[in-house]
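> example.struct
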C-alpha cells in the first residue's frame, strides 16, 4: 500500500510538471514568416515588450491565417502579460 501511494505521488508530480510548464514561443522558419512578424513577435516577447509582440503576432495572423503557431504565440503572450482573467482564444478569428 505504501508503494502504491509513492507511485501515485510520483505520477501526480510528473503530470503537474507537464501541465504547469509554460510552452515556449515558437519562432518561424525564414521561409514561413512573410514580413518577419513572427520572429519579431518572439523577440519582443522575450524582452517583455508584450504589446509590441501581440501587434506582430496579429500581423502574422493576418498574413497567414491558417498557421496555428501565430495564434498560439499570441495567446501565450497574453498569458505572460498576466491576462488570465480575460484569456484570448487560441483559435482562429472568424472573418466578418
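> example.seq
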Amino acid at each position: 500500500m505504501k508503494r502504491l501511494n509513492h507511485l501515485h505521488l510520483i505520477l501526480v508530480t510528473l503530470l503537474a510538471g507537464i501541465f504547469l510548464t509554460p510552452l515556449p514561443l515558437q519562432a518561424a522558419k525564414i521561409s514561413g514568416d512573410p514580413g518577419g512578424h513572427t520572429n519579431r513577435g518572439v523577440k519582443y516577447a522575450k524582452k517583455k515588450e508584450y504589446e509590441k509582440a501581440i501587434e506582430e503576432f496579429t500581423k502574422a495572423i493576418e498574413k497567414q491565417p491558417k498557421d496555428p503557431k501565430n495564434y498560439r504565440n499570441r495567446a501565450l503572450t497574453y498569458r505572460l502579460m498576466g491576462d488570465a482573467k480575460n484569456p484570448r482564444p487560441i483559435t482562429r478569428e472568424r472573418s466578418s
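> remarks
The chain has one domain: 25-96.
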